[in-house]
Give the backbone structure.
Amino acid sequence: RGPGSRTRDSTCRVPVASGAVSYSVDGKRILVTGGSSGIGAALAEGFAARGATVGICARRADRLDEVLGRMREHAPDSRAWTVDLADLDAIEPFAKRAAAELGGLDVMVNNAGIPKRRDVRRLSPAEVDAVMRINYQSPVRLTLALLPMLIERSGRIVNISSVAARLGPPIEAAYAASKAAITAFSECMAVDLRDT
C-alpha cells in the first residue's frame, strides 16, 4: 500500500460487562432511530462507512437529508424516513415499510430520545407521558414489530439508554424513569432471547 491508502475495517467493537464483542456490519441492513443528529447520526455514518446499508428516521427532514447524503458516499442504497415516533399507532406500519425498503433488517438501533430537565414539583403528567412515549414505548413497539425478522436473521437490537437509569440525577425524574424502563426491558429481553 502506498502513502494515503486506506482500508475499511467493518468490525465494530462494542464494550460489554464481560469485555468487548466484535460484530462485522459489512453487508448488514441497519435501522437507526433518531438518526438526524448526535449519537444516531454518528452511528449511522459510522455503520455506512463500514459497509452497512443504513436506514435512519427522525422528525426533521432537513437534518435527515444531510446525514443521508454523507451516508450515501459509502452506502448508496441507504434510506431515510421522516417519522414521528410519538405516534405509537404508526410505528408498526413504519417498521414494516422500513424493513421492506431496506431489503430486510439485521440490526435495530433504538436511539431516538427526548430529555426533560425539570424539577419533579414542576412536572406535568403530560410531560412525563411524552418522555415515556418516545424513550420507552416507542422503542418497545418498534422492537416487538421487528423482533420476528431479527430473530430469523440472527440480528441484533441496540437500545440506547443512559447512566441516569441507575443514578437518579436531580431534575431528571421523567428522563431517568424512561431510561430505567428501557434498560429493564433490554435486560429482560436479553434473558428471554439468550437461546436465539
Summary: The beta strands are 11-16, 19-24, 29-33, 53-58, 79-82, 107-110, 156-159. The first strand starts at residue 11 and ends at 16. The radius of gyration is 17 Å.
